[in-house]
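Running log. JK asked me to keep both predictions on one page so they can be read side by side. First protein, sequence followed by its tokens:
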Amino acid sequence: MNYVISDIHGMYTKYIEMMNLIDLQDTDTLYILGDIVDRGPQSMKILQDMMKRPNVFGIFGNHELMMIECLSFLCQEITEEFLNSLDEEKLMRLSDWMNNGAFYTIKEFKSLSKKEQQDIIEYLMELTAYEEVTVNGKDYLLVHAGLGDFSEEKSLDEYDVNDFVWKRPDWDMPYFTDPNKFVVVGHTPTLGINGKPEIFYKNNFIAIDCGACFENGMLACLCLDTMEEFYV
């Protein structure tokens, strides 16, 4: 079976409950469409669990991108040279990340050993920008946010990581003319689309961010083989 989850946002307890609910087997595959980290309190525990599972594949979200950009300089030894290197661009990146819920992530990361920190960074660098999966004769593009500056004539390798992790689709305008090609995305909470914490379907888009980190939200999972929905 092929499963997709998105936007766990540090909600480790919900993540483990979902793993138990879908009863992920060694022969199954789970794709997590980014925004694993930030906002919730236990992002590192989720990443460390994913690292142990060879059948779980992570995709970059904007929060992982912000984390990597900032950790590249936050992990350096604090010296006079380091402080002098903190230019306006780096400080703006850090400010943006903090404003997007990085507090718990940084606190948890700092509590790890140097070896664990390095393992986390290396794992994040191995995340992919997207995945393409064919299930029951249907093609699925799995991506965090959408395809920025979309054109059906463009190949996927013509987009950069920012196109995949920031730009939200226009739900009224499908990307592809092929009726058997679907785009599965997170990033945009369905609470903000139709006010409901449930998976949203329109014009071959499937939006699965159901607001796990919000009080009235859910962590959602979709099985692409059966189209069965799971909620925690």
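And the second, directly underneath as requested:
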Amino acid sequence: MLLAAAGLYVLRAKGAWTAELEPYALRPDDLQTVQAGARIYAQHCAACHGVRGEGQPNWREHGPNGLLPAPPHDESGHTWHHPDAQLFAITKHGLAQLIRQPGYRTDMPRYDGVLSDTEIVAVLSWIKAQWPQETRVRHDQLNDQYRKSLER
């Protein structure tokens, strides 16, 4: 059965969700993926989101250009409030496409055509690997809830 998930198509095998079936699933325990993600993050993300994912100051307040500054990706931000599929979709296609508001403006570039899907997963995996265990567990629970909502 094919299900639409955050603009992605996900193959669902009856009750069996795996990384192979979820190509956007984060892999924070895969050392090779996380190391690659650290390099890619440093090159493409750190300038805005900070070397350690701390984000820009006053990230909840619109700046002089009317846009929100880059949020933190650490546990103080909201990154972990989104399931893997949404994080992948935001990074690859942009928030405007995910929320279906083409006029939404942001400084966050789309990485479709810049980074491969594997590289996007690596970056997001590195980000998740930086979170405290409690935050990672909560994010895993969010992913489980998201998957169950797709099965309905």
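Observation for JK regarding the second prediction: Residues 1-20 have pLDDT under 50 and may be disordered.
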